[in-house]
Structures are given as structure tokens and as C-alpha cells.
Amino acid sequence: MNTSILQEEYVSSGHVACPGCGGALAMRYALKSLGPRTIIVMAASCWSIIDGPFPYTSVAAPLLHTIFEAAASTAAGVKAALDIQGDKDTTVMAWAGDGGTFDIGLQALSGAAERNDDIIYVCYDNEAYMNTGIQRSSATPLGAWTTTTPAAHFKDRPKKKMLEIMAAHHIPYAATASIAFPDDLMQKIKKAAGIHGMKFIHIFAPCPTGWRFPSSLSIKIARLAVHTNVFPLYEIENGMRYTLTVGSFNLPVEKYLRLQGRFAHLDEEWIQIIQRNVDRQWETLLKKAME
């Protein structure tokens, strides 16, 4: 890890995230990348609680809480107000979970992308509605347990391809990132800050509570998601140019699944089904990256 990322802190120790929370670490890295000239627009999510009770806050940046579905549209409004004031130096970052991005906030997000609003939209993805009881979202992966997809009726649909949806809008920049690869994550956010128009960053953020694993394994699980090709790290420029930014070890997906209680019910047949799905998606991504 680059030691320079340790020099400034914009997230205090007073936040109330669960131990091992990937979302808390994602915010820490994001604000290290952007610095104090940042306004955060935050949709209802785990981070609405993590930030702390009003009138306190654990982030050293102006923060505007908004309703579940409106992170992108509210951020666009904040950016428009800054433009009217002649402020070209402040970055506006919308911050939402997978529920507020893949599901409830998709309409506003699509609108902001179609207009090419000059904001950075970050989705910290813990693959379910964790703050309200671990209900499934369209980011919940195939085979996973949640409270609304219990083990006997686990989720039988694949995870929505959110980055491909954003790429279909032909926005200037879209990328995946992971808390297990902080240099890659921070480089992408810094790159996004230097691009005019809509930018979308999809951060993989494991949740020990909802995924049912010890909090000490958060980084290991996030790293395995990349090295098993479950969550590849890449970027898409102008909806067309694909670039892999971190290599894969092509490890068996079982190494990732077996560390999490939410997949404990899966038998060998289902593990192989998931493996084949991951392999197909990885091969498709490699072809796009070589075009």
C-alpha cells in the first residue's frame, strides 16, 4: 500500500459502523482521494447511521442526507448551485448503497447519466439491504441467503450488471473498485474527479453481519472476490473502452463462497453452477478488454 494514503484522515473514529464494515473503509478511501473540497450527498443507507446522530458527523466534509431514491438528482442539484456560484473546484459525490443504486435510485441515476451531470456517483455494494434487516436486493448474488431469500429458497437469480447499465449510457467513466485494493480504488476516484461529466464508481464492500463471516475476514473476502473473478476490477471509458486494472489468480469460486455463512447451504452442484456463470462473465470481460 502507498504510505501517502495514511497522511490525511477525513473519517473520524467516532462513526458507528459494525466491526469490519467494508462501507466504512470505502468512505475513508474515497475522501482521502478527494480531499476536503468535497460535498457528499448521501442516500438513505447504512451510512446514514454510520455517520452518527444529528447534529454530529464522522466525516470532515459537508454532508447532505437525502431520501433513498434521490442521491443522483440531489447531487446534480448541488452541482448546479455550485456552478451558479462560480465554484469549479468543489467535487460533488453522491454516496449510496446497492439498494439505493441498483433498485430504488436507478431512475434518478439513469436520468443523471443521460444528462451527463458533472458528479461522481459511488455505490458501496454490500449486496443486500443491510440497514433494514438483510433483505435481498438486485445486487444480491446467485445462491445467497438473505432474510427474504432463506436457505430453503435462496436467491435463484443472478446479480444485476450495474456497470454495464451505466456503460450503456455512454458516460465518460465507470469503474469497479474494492476495499482490498486501496491504491486501485483511490486512483480511480482521483481519475474520476479529473473528468467532466458523469462518473460512476462501484465499490465492493463486504458486510460481516449480512454475509455471516468473522469481521477479521473482510479484506480477505474482498480480495478473494477479485482473485476468483467474482468481482473483477476494471474501468469503462465512454461506454466502450474496457481496461482491466488488477489481475486475477483465477482461483476456484468455492474458496470465496465457503468463507461466508450466506452460502453455507449450497451443495456441490450449485457451486459448479456459480463457477460456470463466473467463468462465462470473465471470458466476456476479457474479450471486451481486448477489443
Rg computed from alpha carbons, rounded to a whole number of angstroms: 18 Å
Tell me the fraction of residues in β-strands, as a range: 5-15%
Q: Main β-sheet: number of strands, strand sense, barrel status?
A: 8 strands, mixed
Which parts are unreliable, with pLDDT below 50 for 5 consecutive residues or more? none
In what order do the strands lie side by side in the largest sheet? 2-1-3-4-6-5-7-8
Which percent bin holds the helix content? 25-40%
Per DSSP E runs of 2 or more residues, the count of β-strands stands at 8
Count of helical regions: 11
User: How many separate domains make up the residues?
Assistant: 1
Shape: globular
Short description:
With about 290 residues, this protein is α/β, with parallel strands linked by helices. The protein has helices at about 20-35, 45-50, 70-85, 100-105, 105-115, 160-165, 180-195, 210, 220-225, 255, 270-290; strands at about 40-45, 65, 90-95, 120-125, 175-180, 200-205, 235, 240-245. It has a single domain (about 5-290), classed as 3-Layer(aba) Sandwich (Rossmann fold).
Feature tags:
single chain; 291 residues; alpha/beta; Rossmann fold; eight-stranded mixed sheet
Please provide a written account of the structure.
- By secondary structure, this protein is of the alpha/beta class.
- 36% of the residues lie in helices and 15% in strands.
- It is built from eleven helices and eight strands.
- An eight-stranded mixed sheet has the order 2-1-3-4-6-5-7-8, sandwiched between helices.
- Helix 1 (22-34) crosses helix 7 (182-193) and helix 3 (71-84) packs parallel to helix 5 (106-115).
- It is globular and about 60 Å long.
